[in-house]
Amino acid sequence: MPDLHLHHVTDPDTTALLARLQRRRYAHEHGDPEAALGAARALLERLGEHGQVLHVLRGADVVGELLVRDHGAEQGVVDVVLDDPADAPVVCRLVEQRARAAGAGRLTVTVSPGDPVAAALVAGGGFSVAATQMRLDLAAEPPPEPVVSLVPMDEAGFAAWEAEEVESYAAERARSGEDPERALQVSREQHAELLPEGLATPHHHFFVGLVDGAPVGTLWLCTEKPTAFVFDVVVDEAHRRRGYGAGLMRAGARWARDHGALAIGLNVFGHNHGARALYDRLGYVVTEDFWGKPL
Predict the structure, then answer these.
(1) 257 within 8 A of 268, measured Cβ to Cβ
(2) What gap in Å lies between CA 117 and CA 109, rounded to an integer?
(3) Contacts with 217 (C-beta within 8 Å, 6 or more apart), sequence order
(4) Which CATH number, 3.40.50.970, 3.40.630.30, 3.40.50.1100, 3.40.190.10, labels domain 149-288?
(5) CA 130 from chain center: how many Å?
(6) How many CA atoms lie within 13 A of 281 on its CB side?
(7) Which of 49, 109, 246, 266 is deepest in the core (most CB within 10 A)?
(8) How far apart, in whole angstroms, are the C-alpha atoms of residue 145 and residue 147?
(9) Do the Cβ atoms of 5 and 94 come closer than 8 Å?
């Protein structure tokens, strides 16, 4: 086994790290390089004391670097670079040992397409895909949607939708391997942070999908960035398996493009194979995979 160990860097030079985050995580969201770099800086600020830079050492030589997110019950590798990808299995074991020693019950790894080091870190290590970020380019006009139309959600509809959405999002996170109590806490925190003004929160748009005037589902879009984002799409249970999910997504993509979006993105949980198949058919491509394993 190579003589490798991890060293926490208390005052790291983050120049190269920011450039990697800019390129791998944020370039496709923002288009503008400076905006993408600003988003990378904002990520490090949000992580704060929960984000740690670790050097991978062979003896006294630095042969790699990791950005690790520590949230107590869960630790995650946000970014990794190694001089030799063959070191990845050993580095993964070292990260797991470190996470267990800190009392974490789950380890996650973010993998961008074309990143052989992060891919090697999860290969054969008992990881599974917890969630995938996907994106659809809107440079070309999306196909028309002849069946499903969108109308804005009203206050009464939003109140009922939000109460159910917090619970359902928590359930989805728990199905992906997260502790159920933490999943509910994260869901509540994220919704409060995203929607401080409820239905009137700027850049957030809530729709009811109609077919022949009757509601069949809901759609939540955000247009804060050049890449719009689908936070939630739901077809009511009584109307499923009729193609209305695809209709909601096509109508949403056309609405986003008409309102200036250059692309549209979404997150799909790893267990939701039906939704993933739909997004593949609609032309979405993977921008990031989020792998996880219990410890």
Answers:
(1) no
(2) 11
(3) 148, 208, 209, 233, 234, 235, 236, 239, 244, 245, 248
(4) 3.40.630.30
(5) 10
(6) 12
(7) 109
(8) 6
(9) yes
β 263-269/227-235 pair status: parallel
Q: Give CA 59 to chain center in angstroms.
A: 36
Distance CA 56, CA 52 (A): 13
Beta bridge partner(s), residue 283: none
CATH superfamily of domain region 4-126: Gcn5-related N-acetyltransferase (GNAT) (3.40.630.30)
* Contacts of 188 by beta carbon, 8 Å cutoff, 6+ apart: 166, 170
| Residue whose C-alpha is closest to residue 226's, from 110, 137, 158 | 137
Q: Are 230 and 266 in contact (CB under 8 A)?
A: yes
Sequence-ordered alpha helix ranges (H) in 67-201: 88-101, 116-122, 155-175, 180-194
Question: What does each of the 295 residues of the chain score in pLDDT, given as a tens digit?
Answer: 468 999 999 999 999 999 999 988 888 888 788 988 998 999 999 888 889 999 999 999 999 999 999 877 889 999 999 999 999 999 999 999 999 999 999 999 999 999 999 999 999 889 999 999 999 999 998 889 999 999 999 999 999 999 899 999 999 899 888 889 989 999 999 999 999 999 999 999 999 999 999 999 999 999 999 999 999 999 999 999 999 999 999 999 999 999 999 999 999 999 999 999 999 999 999 999 999 999 9
Angle between helices 244-258 and 273-281 (to 10 degrees): 50
What is the Cα–Cα distance from 28 to 287, expressed in whole angstroms?
8
Q: CA-CA distance, 215 to 239, in Å (whole number)?
A: 9
Per the CB < 8 A criterion, the answer to whether 235 and 248 are in contact is: yes
Q: How far apart are CA 29 and CA 263, in angstroms?
A: 8
